[in-house]
Amino acid sequence: MEPWYSLHWFSPAQWQQFQLAQPLALWLIPAILILFFLRYYLYRHAQQRLNMSLGQLNSPRVRGGRGQTGRSWLSIGRYLLPISVFAGMTCLLVALARPQIIREQRNEQSEGIDIMLAMDVSESMSETDLQPTRLAVARRVAQTFVNNRKNDRIGLVVFAGEAFSLCPLTTDYGLVKQYLSDLNDHMIRTSGTAIGDALARCINRMRDRAVVSADTTQREAEATNVDRTKVIILLSDGDNTAGNLDPITAAKLAKAFGIRIYTIAVGRPVASTANAATVDEGVLKTIATLANGSFFRATDARRLQAIFAQISRLEKAPIRVLVYEDVQDYYRIYIYWGISFLLIALGLKNTIFGNVLED
């Protein structure tokens, strides 16, 4: 930081950094000029003058030499007193305006929400109506969805004829994406599609108030028992053919725990040689309706990506923006300058420059 007596404090670059807390104080500076002008106008005929015979000092030789130079400097010096007074008052008014530098820091905080992804890995998800396969497209789009979330806990449940909790709720998005990349239609050997059991697994994960070991960043939030929004995103062809729990019962249970379910039917509703119907929309629509969610159909990769983007917009946790301001005042520097100029003016008052006989 420059010392107070440095001329740096009057540079335009320095003034561009300042913000004035009381900018109206600067409007008084022109008032000082007006007062000086009124004083000069009102008292210009009332000033006392002393006519003196300077003799040879008025000769042309002397006037053209050192005498003329000395008188010119004396004439200029007469203005030092009012200039010092004006500069001192101006600096004091600048100090009254309180120049300051404000450094602002914004901090965004969000509690986040809990999201469970329920991914169908049954044999029907290997259909190629979505290239290369339904499961491959769903896996890739789900990874993009995870990338776009912030402060949310995400878990993963996979199901075919049985349902397994593959990843607990966590903010370790790298871990979730790794599990998603490993999904294939051979990881569960039991054939069928157990949608009800998959929803039950998701509900158990979300209603458990204990902090899981895989989550290392949300322990404090869980310790304070903060209620978080809970969402299940179910991707399946909707053909429920296995499991011990009816999907409708699971949807009602989710609603009782305040969990919202979004269902996505992956694939085109056309007949297949392996199944009577490739996609069963009825079950997925009923689940979404009972759990206060929404039903979507994804007939291609672009549509599936748009569905995830829509869900991402719908499910956003409120963000608290905290603004920190570091305020540094610099009015003392201009007080020092103002006092210095006024002291100079006081000193000039006791010299020939402040003598009324010189006017």
TrEMBL record:
Pfam families registered for this protein in UniProt: VWA
UniProt keyword terms in alphabetical order: Cell membrane, Membrane, Transmembrane, Transmembrane helix
PANTHER family per record: LEUCINE ZIPPER PROTEIN 4, SPORE GERMINATION PROTEIN
Protein name: VWFA domain-containing protein
Domain VWFA: 114-311
InterPro entries linked: UPF0353/GerABKA_families, VWF_A, vWFA_dom_sf
Superkingdom assignment: Bacteria
